Structure formats: structure tokens, C-alpha cells
Amino acid sequence: MDARRGSLPVPRVRQVGFFTPNAQPAPTRSQSGPPDSSSPPLSDSPASNSLSPVMIPPPRHHSDNLAAAPRPTSPLPVPEPSPFRRRGADNNNALLVGSYNPAETLLAMSPSSSHIGDGESEETMSGGWFRRSNSGKLASSLPSGTFDFSPVQSTAEVLKPNKVQNPVGISEVSARPAPKEQQPEAPSSSKQPKPKLTKAERRALQESQRAAKAAAKAPGGGKSVAAPEEVATIKSVKQHQTQKKDAPQVAVSVAASERKGGDKSQDKERRKDAPAPRMQFDDKSRVEKAKRRSVVDQTEAKKRVELFRHLPQYEHGTQLADLESKFLQLDPMHPAIYKVGLQYLAGDISGGNARCIAMLQAFQQVVKDYSTPPEKTLPRDLTAKISSYVSFFTQCRPLSMSMGNAIRFLKNRIAKLSPSLSESESKSSICTDIDRFINEKIVLADRVIVQHASSKVKDGDVLLVYGSSCVVEMVLLHSHELAKQFRVIVVDSRPKLEGKALLRRLVAKGVHCTYTHINAVSYVMHEVTKVFLGASSVLSNGTVYSRVGTACVAMVAHAFRVPVIICCEAYKFHERVQLDSICSNELGDPDAIGKVPGRMDVNYLNDVSNSGNLQLLNLMYDATPADYVSMIVTDYGMIPPTSVPVIVREYRRDHLLI
Amino acid sequence: MPDVQALVNMFLNKLKKRKIEGSQATAKQTAELLRSVISQQRVPRTNQAGALIDAVRAIGEQLIVANPIELAVGNIVRRVLHIIREEDLSLTTAAVAELNLSTVSDDDDDDGGGGDQDDRPVLSAAAVAAAARNTLRPPSLQMLLEGAPDFVAVPRSSSSGGDSEGKSKSMDRNSRTRKLKHDIIEAVNELIQDITTCHELIAEQAVEHIHQNEVILTLGSSKTVLEFLCAAKEKKRSFRVFVAEGAPRYQGHLLAKELVARGLQTTLITDSAVFAMISRVNMVIVGSHAVMANGGVIAPVGMNMVALAAQKHAVPFVVLAGSHKLCPLYPHNPEVLLNELRSPSELLDFGEFSDCLDFGSGDGSPLLHVVNPTFDYVPPKAVSLFITDTGGHNPSYMYRLIADYYSADDLVVQRRHAAGN
User: Fold this and answer.
1) Where is the composition biased (Basic and acidic residues) (chain B) (predicted)?
2) Phi, psi of A392 (to 5 degrees)
3) Would you say A401 and A644 are in contact if contact means Cβ atoms under 8 Å apart?
4) N or C: which end of chain B has fewer CB within 10 A?
């Protein structure tokens, strides 16, 4: 554990976008003999060092190499059952290896027990991967295991069934001399790129050249260093293309573009990793600019809450009619997009998952009906189109972070489309990608979460839920179906009163329910044994961004020593960080605050709502600090909030290779 | 007497039906009722104070039973009892002093009936000592050194004090009876005055606590808070107020309306947004329903949440409380025992959920419960400061403050204790 901690301080995120070009064990594996030269890792390290941006400390490169190494191999050996699992596994590899003590690596010592500890601790954090630690141990038990370690693991990962994996790993380890495999491509730097190239190769070449130029600019970087990487890229691309026709092509192109290397692209990549600053609505010029582009006619709220000037504050209720009237004029807007946008605006679709699915399905429709205009390429044009749709959605209602993740995924998929695919193939590939995203990231993930979470429901429990989260509801219903005896306390709050609908559904299923409002939460908390909460997003500092009031409930539960369990799909995790609920939030219709439906006696504000001094603030979300969260149940298992950044890291790679 | 009984019954009815809202109104009406009770009570020749105490106690007991949650009733009953005791005591001491003077002059004139008079100074000295103790005057060092036998003697002497009084009132009995009652009624009037003006006294302190550009959060509605904020506003302080609406009664809307009418910049938020907003708040100022002797606060529901949030963000949590809200009792399980469940219709529309009400499990218990408590208990450690009409106090000081207003004998207003006495 200590070793691992020691290696942690440099944020791991950096490793994600960083791929040293010369690590290409994939080809070597398919090649019969050992690679042409066995440059020891030591000699290689300065080279990669000069390649690297200044921030990354040199010893890291070994681990990076190792981390990068298994990636191309993974598609090769076996068609794996669940690609995103495997991605996670690879990441883990990176994690494991990344925690190497550099001295150890250089001396080719066998991994110490700390590595095993590593694997195990990772495992405890993310319940899903059990094979890993196994293989880690295996590798460590072998004398030459140090460098072999990651390839073995990756293969082991790929072979899902636990029993099969070990023999394979062993055979592989014993079959090949480990250290040679380490840096197979390094000396091939002297080779020149071959003249005959496929389209993909050309693209890869271009990119790598660009990258090389960038690298030349960087201090200490040079073309000579960048050259091998080009070669490597091209080579790998070629090899993959010749070996596999259809399925892995996507992966290869991904890998290729990932590996474009060079300082600039790395920097870019890394910059992309850091979430882009959001639009700040107190920035006049930008707001003006956005307004000119916007489709939805929004009138700014007359009374804006001072504290939230940076958030969009528009008059509600006016846009809908306006948009409806514009229906025929909005030429470029796809009707499916239009429909979903209107539904967002009217509040017909709410809830993170529902919104995300609706959006993705609309995009699917768009893709199906799409035809590339002449003189344009599909990826660029489609991405631009989707961007415009996204901004339309944003105008209808600010996007949730989960939607942002889904959009990023989609754009990524489009960008990584192999140019050799025909238009119809690309389209169908995108459509299946969307389907897979919905299925795996939302539907299946929910099922896994329900499995995990309902294992925490015991007979005699009193569960407190807040608002209406569809996952939590599924957990409750599933537990009820399992004939567990428990009571549910539904806590609700204005103005949305989403709990009422949940209450109705639960009671209809025969669940014992108690309904109350959020102020009474400390009254009911005495009898509560567990608190189940949903989340709109979980940020990488462990903050849970959720329906406003969640933080209050979690806080009171914390004060009463009641465990708080957050149910959230991993696709909602976001690498953004947030400390309070002010900096980024969504403002609902302020008029909903002043009126209390169904309460005729509460009408104090009817006549004063136009006074200048009165502001009505309808916050939609709040940020629950990680201290209040006992556990987050996600599709990767049950994790503490501190493990969210780990999942985020794993998960971001998932995007690339789902 | 019958009209008093009618008044009492009417008030009891109101209390039972929860027609009187707010501890201030309740306190005031209770005090007024007790005043009329006292004024109409016929006092016997001897032990008038005892008779008055018994009468007030009997009625007070009924009132407390009628609405045990409204602690202000009990507070006022106890304070009136305390007033009676004090007035009686001061009259006695005054009389003793007079008698002392008169004995001195009597000695000069003649020594007839000296046996009686010789006793009195001794007894009344003991009564003075008791008075000194009862009013919690700090005992002098002299007394501490010598006074051990005195303290032993005190209870006996005070119990016998009534008799001696009775004996002493030979000639000016009528005038003294009237004097006692008159004094008590005067004091009760003062109490009523205090209750009505307490928020002014509290509001006077506002400038000391609110500075320019402050952001203040409050929950629900309280007249004291309103006056407090407005007093600061009148002193040309400009600040912003966040008002949490205080479901399910939404009194916050009312407060927001009042604040806006007085020109304060007000932002109304939902209760659920309290945690989100509290990080930008400089101070939480809330009213209370009652303040317990341990410094805990019985407050409108939701207050504990606000207090916890304030504690988390180290925001001062200031409770305004008039002295009639200071309750001499220590709470036990206050969330349940000092609470009251209101109608579920405030949360769920019966009509809307009528279809769900039919669902019942096999054992006949309904599937759907609705909990709508009225009050919250805020533990003393969550409170930064109490501002009462006597100034600002720590929660840990409340027991001492409360001792000024109540006498220890009245803490339990129960018949058997009254009989025992």
C-alpha cells in the first residue's frame, strides 16, 4: 500500500493521455521471433524522457510504456465477451504498473509484494475485477515477471473465465523471454516509412508528423526522437489492418489516433481531459454571441439573483410557445431533436437517465437520416451537426453532466470512425455504438447497481429515500420482490415534489411507505437504518451532484450516524470537481417558488412577486460533500467516494473502446 | 368566580384546538387570564399568597395539560407563581422592617404584648434569610461563615412564616390583602408588557450583530426575527436576507413579503436549498418556539437541518428568544415528546392519494403513513448565541438566566406537589 501511495502524488490522469510511441508489444506478439533488438529499458528511458512534456517525471515512462504496451495486444488473442470490462482491466494494468518503483523496474527485479497489495486494493475499490489480482500474483511469482507482468495480465484479463486464465498466462510467460519483449520497436527508428500506404496509414502518418513537429518545438524534444514513433504507429496500424478486417479496425484507428504522440497533441489531449470551462453567463460578450446563434428565443429574467449571475437565468414559460411556432422554420433541426428539446423544455422528460436516453435516441434518429453533403466528410459534418443540436438542447435546458459524458462519447466515436468505412457502415456503426452505450452504460449498469444495492437491504430496515431516483426506485422494488421486509420513508421537497410519484408507485407495489417533507428529515432520521440516494453526477472529488436537498438529507443522516448510500451509474461520473453548489448549478423556474399548488392558504406572495427587492431562487441541484457519503454503488461495484477519480479514469478510456 | 371559570374554559378550548398560534400570543393571553384569575380570587385572611399560588397552580395545570407542547403556557404560569412568591416575600420583608421599627418604638412606649412581638423579629430575620436565598442574591461572606444554622432554619421558618403573618395582620389586614393582590397584578401587568415589547428589546441589539453587506439566512417566519432585521435596516445597514420558506406552513413566504415591504433585499429559497446556500451566508438568525434550560431550542420544523448546515460551514447560528420562551425544564427526547404531528393534508392531498389509502397489508396496518411534525429540537451545541431581551447569552448560560425568572418550587406544576406543599 505504501509503495502505491508513494507513487500516487503525481496525478494519474496524466498517464491517461500519454502513450510512448515505441512500446508496441502487440506486433511482437504476432511476430514469430523476438523483436529485432532488445534495447534495455534503461537505454530507452532518456529517449522517452526527451519526448515527454516537462511535467512528467522520467521514471514514469517505464510505467507508461508498460501501460501502453498491452493495449494493442488486447484485441488480438481472443474475442472478448465484454469490451468495456476489458478496457477497465487494461487501465488497471496501467495502474498497477504505474505504481512501480522505478528503481525496481530498471533493475528488473521481480515485483515486490507491494504490487500484489496494489492489485488487491484496487480490487476492493472496484468490485468488478477479480481476476486481476490473481494474475498479478502469478506474474510476481515468476522470476522474470517484472516486464512480462503487464502483457500477462492483459491476456489474462481478456480471457474472462477465471480458470482458463492462469494456464494461459503461465504458458505465455514461460514461452517468451520477458525483458526482450519490453521495448521491441525502439531500434526500428532508423527505418523510413514505407511508400505504400493505406488511407488509415496516411492519416496516422500525417498525424504523427504533426506531432513530431510539435515535439521538435518542445524543449529537449527532437525529430529524431519522434521518428520512431511514427514508424511504430504506421506499422502497428498496418499490422492490425492486415490481421483483422472489421471489428478491431475501430479499435486500431482509435489506438492509432491515440498514439499520435508528440508533445502538442499530448498536451492537447491532456487539456481535453481537464473539463472545459463552462459558459459563464455574466460574461456579456459571450452571452451576446451565444444569443445570436441561439434558436430558442429566451428573454432574460428581469430579477436575476445576484449570486447566480454566472448561470443562465431566463424567463420560463415563454420559450415553449415560441419554439412551437417556429417548428416549420427551424429548417436544420431534425424533428426528433426538436421533439426531445421541447420535451426538455416542458419538463416532460426529467431524470438523468431518461434525458440521456432520449437525447441519444434522438441522435440515433439523426444519424439514421443523415447523408453526408457533397464535399464534406462524415465525421466532421456529423460532429458539427451534433454540436449544433447539443447547443439547441442546452438552450432548452442546461445539459446534465451525464449527458455531457454521453455526447463526448458519441463525438469520440464519430471522430474515431475509420475513414475506410462507407457511409452506411459508419452510420450503422454509430447507431450500434449508441445502442451499446444505452444498453451497457445505463440499462445493464442499472441492473448491476440494483443487484449490489439490494444486497444491502436487510429485513427490518427502514430506508430513507429522497426525491425520485429511478435507480433507487428499482432497488426498492427489487428488494421488495425478494420479499425483504423493510419500510421506506420517502422524503420530498418543493417545488418539484417528485417524491409523490415515487410514493404512489411504491405504495401500489405494496411497499410500506412513510411520506414526509425535507424539513422533517431530522424527525424521521431516528428510525432510519439506511439512506439511499440517487445522483445526477458524481464528481471526481467525491462530491455528489444531485437534486437539491440531497445534501441536506445526507448531512442529517451523517449527523445521526446513518449510512448514506448513493446509487449512480458510472457514466455519470465526471472528472470535474466542485466544492459548493453555487459555482455551477441549474436554476429552475423561479415562479414555482412563490406558488404552492394545492395550498390555497399560502398565497402571501401573489401580490409582491413583482417587487424589486424580492428574488425567488429555484436551485435545481446541490453538491453533497464526500464526507457525508458512506458508499457509492455503481456498475463497477460498491466504492467509497474517494475512489471516484479512479473510476473516472478507467471510465474515460472506456469511451474510446466501448 | 364563574366568569373566570368561563374565561378559563374558553382559553382551554382555544389551546386544545390549537387556535392560538405563536408563543408570544399564547404567553400574553395566558398572563392576561391569570391576571383576571388573581384579581377575582378571594383570598383568605391567612396565607393569602398560598391561596393565590394554589389557585394559579390549579388553573395553570389545566392550561398546561390542554397544550403541553406550548411551553409558553407553562412558562407564564410559573412566572406568575414566581411573581406571587416574590411579591409576598417583599411584602413580608417590608412588613418585618416596619415591625422592627415599630417594636423599637413600642419598646419605648410600653411593653404590653411583648411576648408576641419578641418572637417576631427572630422569625422575620429567618424570613429575610430565606428571601435572600430565594432571590438568589449572592450570600455574603459573613453569612457563609456563620450561616450554616441559618440555612437549616430557613425552611421551617418560611413554612411557619404564613402563620406569623396571619398573627401579625391584626389591624391593617384589609389594606395588606389588597396590597399583595395589587402588587401581584401590577407585576403581572409588567410581565404582559414585557412579553409585548420583548422583540423591541431584542431588536435594539440588532446593530451590534449585523454589519454592512451581511448575508443572513432565516427559516420560517418569526415576528422577532422580522423586527430584528428591520431594526438593523433602519440603522442604515444594508444586507441581504435569504428566507427558507419553511414547509409545510410556508411562513417564510410571509416573512419574505414583510421584509420586502420594508425594503430589505430578500431572496426566497426552498428548504432543500439551505445546504447549498449556507456556504454564502454570514449568519443564520432564527426565531424559536421555546428555549430549554440546557440551551436546546424547540424551533419550527427544519431548524435542526439549518443548524447542522450552519455548524458544518461554521456559520453563526443565532436564536432570538423573548424571555417568555425560556423554559425551566430540561428536555428529554424532545423530538418526540415535545413535538406535535400536524395534519397530513398539508403534505398530501387526500383526494389525490385516495386510491393509495385503500392499500393495506394483511395485518390491517395501512401501507401509507404521512409524518408532519411541527417542531424540531436543536441541541445546544449547534447554537452559537441566544439573543434575549436581556442581551446575548451562551447556550450554557441559559439555565442561570432561567433561574432568574422562575422559583425552583414551581418547576413542576402538578396538583400532588401543590397538595404536598
Assistant:
1) 164-175
2) -65, -45
3) no
4) N
DSSP state of A441: I
**Sign of the torsion formed by the C-alpha atoms of B1, B4, B6 and B9:** negative
Close Cβ partners of A522 (under 8 Å, ≥ 6 residues apart): A556, A559, A560, B304, B305, B308, B335, B376
- Whether chain B has a CB inside 8 Å of the CB on A561: the answer is no
b/e sequence A397-418, b meaning 16+ C-beta within 10 Å: bbbbbbbbbbbebbbbbbebbb
CB distance B335–A519 less than 8 Å? no
Q: Tell me the whole-structure pTM to 2 decimals.
A: 0.70
Count of residues in chain A: 658
Type of residue at B12: L
Cell of A506: 411504491
Please state the separation of Cα A468 from the chain's center in Å. 24
Closest by CA to B57, choosing from B21, B85, B17, is: B85
Give the pLDDT band of residue A465 (cuts 50, 70, 90): very high
- Report how far residue A7's alpha carbon sits from residue A99's, in angstroms, rounded to the nearest whole number: 5
Distance CA B183, CA A303 (A): 57
Using a CB–CB cutoff of 8 Å, tell me whether B298 touches chain A: no
Q: Parallel, antiparallel, or unpaired for β A530-534 and A564-567? A: parallel
Distances in Å between the alpha carbon of A156 and those of A128, A236, A252, A393? Answer: 15, 22, 20, 43
pLDDT above 90 for A524: yes
Residue with cell 431562487: A617
Query: Of A316-330, A545-559, A592-606, which has the strongest mean pLDDT?
Result: A545-559
The three three-digit cell numbers of residue A46, written as one number: 532518456
Predicted-complex ipTM score: 0.82
Query: How many angstroms separate the CA of residue A646 from the nearest CA in chain B?
Result: 27
The single residue listed with the C-alpha cell 437539491 is A548
The dihedral built from the CA positions of residue B88, B89, B92 and B93, taken in this order, carries a sign that is negative
Q: Which stretches of chain B drop beneath a pLDDT of 50?
A: 107-122, 149-171, 417-421
Q: Per-residue pLDDT averaged across A175-181, rounded?
A: 43
Q: Give per-residue pLDDT as tens, A120-163.
A: 444 444 333 434 434 434 433 344 433 444 444 444 444 444 44
**Dihedral angle sign, alpha carbons of residues A134, A138, A141, A143:** negative
Taking only residues 571 to 600 of chain A, the set having a beta carbon closer than 8 angstroms to any beta carbon of chain B reads 580-582, 585, 593-594, 596, 598-599
Chain B residue numbers with beta carbons less than 8 Å from the beta carbon of A581 are 273, 275-277, 279
Cell of A118: 496494489
Which are the contacts of B152, defined by CB distance < 8 A and separation ≥ 6? none
CA distances from A263 to A13, A16, A42, A218, B147 (A): 16, 14, 22, 7, 91
- How many CA atoms does the CB half-sphere of A615 hold within 13 Å? 22
CB-based contact A600:A561 (threshold 8 Å): no
- E strands in A501-645: 512-517, 530-534, 537-539, 544-547, 564-567, 573-574, 614-617, 621-624, 631-634, 637-639
Q: What is the pLDDT of residues A244-293, one digit of tens each?
A: 444 444 444 444 444 444 455 555 555 555 566 777 777 777 777 776 66
| pLDDT greater than 90 at residue A460 | yes
B268 contacts in chain A (CB < 8 Å): 593-594, 605, 614-617
Q: In this complex, do A619 and B273 lie within 8 Å of one another by their Cβ atoms? A: yes
Identity of the amino acid at A474:
M
Task: Tell me the H-state helices in A372-469.
Answer: 378-396, 401-415, 423-436, 445-454
